[in-house]
Amino acid sequence: MYLSEKESCDFAKVEWGWASCDGLDKMAFVMGQGIDTLVVNDPVSDGFVRLDDFFASGATAEIDSMTEDYKAGLAEQAKRLGKPVEFVGWRIYPTADKVKNLIYYALDSKWDGNATTNVKVMLLDRYGYVAVDLVPARADLGAEEIKDVVGQAVGAYKAKAASGYADFQEGDQIAAYGGLGVLAAVLGVKFGKVATVGLFAGLALLLKKGAFLIIVPLVALGGYIKRLFRRKPDMPA
Fold first, then answer.
1. What is the value of pTM for the model shown?
2. φ and ψ of 99, to 5 deg
3. CA 66, CA 188: separation in Å to the nearest integer?
4. pLDDT tens digit string along 110-132?
5. Residue-wise over 183-202: b if at least 16 C-beta within 10 A, else e?
6. How much helix, strand and coil, in percent to the nearest 5, is found in the chain?
7. pLDDT tens digits, one per residue of 148-162
8. Distance CA 80, CA 13 (A)
9. DSSP strand E in the chain: where?
10. Is the dihedral of CA 112, 105, 46, 157 positive or negative?
11. Sign, Cα dihedral of 70, 75, 79, 82
């Protein structure tokens, strides 16, 4: 099942305590293959993102600092929900993959005492990145099983011709931030001198499992998933 733009926004605000739906592109539920809930954000087209800073000395300290800011920001989401929302820890510590050209992490949280796992994948391309949030069907997956779920999400994405990360050419626009800046943006925290990056800056957001069960023909859904992961016509790529 997938929701219209208004339905998606209403659901996110009521069920998850989001304050804004800016940047929300698509939302789907009960997708089979280990994915319960999936949200695709609008592409960010700030330019080609270099990953060098993710592998530089001090990167871990930067990520740990972001983690503390993120945990503090969740208090606002909990306040909007009227229920406790707690960051438990990283199931998969924020990771950059230079081979697959992506950044991803998995974190555990508790919603009013109920455990859930959130996975976020930032797919890099020639023009920026597309952020994808998903909740696995099970909250007890091991790291390797979560990587398999990440692989399913990545496998559904295909950049248009000459728009992939490897298609970068000298003269293309380069983002003012690197991989750590992308991470800060999706976590909604400050990073260095960059106070607002991307679409969700300033908002600490978590998802939980969908509140309903809809049976969708998997053959039809497969084609829809592929259509999910595309930049809009007015976007580069």
1. 0.76
2. -80, -45
3. 9
4. 888 888 888 999 999 999 998 88
5. bbbbbbbbbeeeeebbbbbe
6. 30, 30, 40
7. 888 877 776 667 788
8. 9
9. 24-32, 35-41, 85-97, 102-111, 114-125, 128-136
10. negative
11. positive
In the predicted model, what is the mean pLDDT of the chain? 77
* pLDDT tens string 170-179: 999 999 999 9
DSSP 166-233: GG--TTS-B-SS-HHHHHHHHHT--BTTBS--SSSTT--------S------HHHHHHHHHHHSS--T
**For residues 63-78, average pLDDT:** 85
Rg of the chain taking only CA atoms, in angstroms:
17
For residue 39, what are its two tokens?
A: 């949200």
Gap between the Cα atoms of 176 and 173, Å rounded: 9
- What is residue 159's three-state secondary structure? coil
For residue 233, give every residue at least 6 positions away whose Cβ sits within 8 Å of its Cβ, in sequence order, or none.
Answer: none
Structure tokens at 140: 């007890």
Rounded (5°) CA angle 77-72-81: 15
On the question of pLDDT at 203 being above 70, the answer is no
DSSP code for 161: T
Residue type, 28: A
d(CA 33, CA 7): 24
Residue 157: predicted pLDDT: 67
pLDDT value at position 151?
85
CA–CA separation, 118 and 21 (whole Å): 18
Of the candidates 195, 191, 159, the one whose C-alpha atom is nearest the C-alpha of residue 178 is: 191
